Amino acid sequence: MNKNPITLMKPEVVAMKQQAIFAFNARAKSMDHVINMTIGEPNFPTPKHIKEAAIKAINDNQTHYTVPEGNHKVLKAISNYLNKKYDLDYDPESQIITTGGVTEGVFSTFNAILQPGDEVLIPSPSFTIYGPDAKFNKANPIYLDTSKSNFKVTPDALRRVLDEHKKIKIFMFNYPSNPTGVSYTEDELRALANILKDYDIFVLSDEIYSELVYNGKHVAFPKLLPDQTILLNGLSKSHAMTGWRFGIVCGPKDIIAEINKIHELATTSISSISQQAALEAYTNGFDDPISMREKYRERRDVLYAGLKKIGFNCPVPDGAFYLFAKIPENINQDDVQLANDILDEECLAILPGSFFGAGGEGYLRLSYAASMEDIEGCLAKLADYAKMHSQATV
């Protein structure tokens, strides 16, 4: 064999780097007594009735393959849930796939749609998998910096970039947003939909935080642009089920059939036990997110007020559980160096904003999916660091 077998590997894979978030978290976890404000998952347990449904499924020996798209009772429950929650009308027999979380949903959808040379429009700062997934398919991510427009895509900016880049095939949309927590009103979404309908592209709408909206009601993008929109959602954030790896992809019948071809190659089918847990969540868990959402709101308000007092400015999050905080001018503006210094000196883990792409430079992302004790500890440590380093201007 070639003395360097790595040369036989797929170049797109070899060129990939480990996600910076994972590397940073690994360093934080190797240290003792660290307050970790990086984790993007609920710190609540999965609701008891959902766990009990999964245990019953195991005891009833429901431990075998399902069809790739998912157990049809589960698909019907998903359809009903989406209809009641968001006024969406998806046929459970042909317009819904169950996936191994939204992450697999993005991967399978990109693989089904993208060809070499295509472009994917990604508002930035953004969740970190979108760009690498595009590159894996030999497509080019086009990042739209939203930092000058309160981290929202404006109609003018959207039209401009669509006119400049003729090879855009997917608009990768995520709201409420990871990492900024911003979301959109129905009027704002409608303005974007009115532009997108003039272009021959798909909208891949990642709405995994749809149940964690603090002001008003979440409006689902496929309600406004059904023929072009592929919806991503799931139970990870809404029902504290990150480890169950349950996501959904919904959309036009013909498109879902093609995505399902990739999905079945990747997974055969997702866990039958997770599907039974999901059946319970979608059937009897309509109100499960409410108490968690109110706790997040309380934590958001405490963290936001504390950060403002220290000198960090950030938009008040409309949803999700992140604050995207601008570093005060009298502290080192290199967010990567700053995050590492805070970790070393204060045993406090906060993610650099630049990990999330263009527009994230000079920011820090803090997750308030943490206990109030950790939030208060985080604020004390940040205040201590700011006091010690307030003269170190850059």
From TrEMBL:
CDD domains: AAT_like. Its cofactor is pyridoxal 5'-phosphate. One of its GO terms (molecular function) is transaminase activity. InterPro entries: Aminotransferase_I/II_large, AspAT/PAT-like, PyrdxlP-dep_Trfase, PyrdxlP-dep_Trfase_major, PyrdxlP-dep_Trfase_small. It comes from the Bacteria. Keywords: Aminotransferase, Pyridoxal phosphate, Transferase. Residues 33-374 form the Aminotransferase class I/classII large domain. It holds the Pfam family Aminotran_1_2. Belongs to the class-I pyridoxal-phosphate-dependent aminotransferase family. This is Aminotransferase class I/II-fold pyridoxal phosphate-dependent enzyme. It comes from Companilactobacillus keshanensis. The lineage of its organism: Bacteria, Bacillati, Bacillota, Bacilli, Lactobacillales.
